[in-house]
Each structure stands twice: as C-alpha cells, then as structure tokens.
Write a structure and sequence with these properties.
alpha/beta, CBS-domain, 6 strands, CBS domain
Length: 138
Amino acid sequence: MTTLPSAGSLPISTVTGDPVARVVADATVADVANAMVADNVGAIVIGDDERPAALVSERDIVRVVAAGKDPNAVRALDVASTKLVWCDSEATVDEVANQMMEHYIRHILVEHEGVPGGIVSARDLLGVYCAEADLKLD
C-alpha cells in the first residue's frame, strides 16, 4: 500500500497560484476593497515595488468602516500592515501554518527566488487540511 505524504508536509508553493494582487501606492481603502472583489482575494499589496513593504487585508478595511471613516478618503497606506511576514516557497504547509499562529496573522507573502510568488491565506491552508481530512474519510 502506497502512503501519501501528509498535507502539512507539502511545499507551500503547491498552494500559491495567482500572482500577488496589487494596487497603486496612492490607492484609497475603497480602491483596495474594489480590487479585492475584482481579484477575489483577501489581501492586497500596496505599490509596485519588487519587494512589497505594505499589505492591506479585509480586516484593515473593516477597521476603517467600523471607525466610521470614509473608505474613499482614507489612504490605504495609512492602514496597511508594514510588518510583513514572508516564507520561502519551499516551506511546508505546516511551517507556514505555525508562522501564522506565531505572528497571529491570516496572510503570509511567499517568496520564490527573491521575488514575491504569492500570498497564502489561512483559508488556503484550511482548504489543504480539509482536503486531507476528506481523503481519510473515503
């Protein structure tokens, strides 16, 4: 009987697919929200630098709205996270999940040969673990 590797031992590169979604450096929070909907993502990099320095997530947008601020008037850079967490594209799913827990975050930028190769979300990892659980039930 052949044993398949556990989902947690898979390289994170098997989860990343689409290029990193971006908005221009002077984007507003409303611009970010529209781009998230258009790209069907939960986090967006701000600016076009090869190595991003800021990221806005759905939570950042919710904070703006909850504070009663106008998303059309708030600059995305003013609410963006600048303490970005990165992983290498060869890190395992388990390693990335542990990084998320350690930093209490939902998104990690994936680096492949020195350039951004994608963003992995907690939802992406949940999908990997659920797929493995489904296989075990079959």
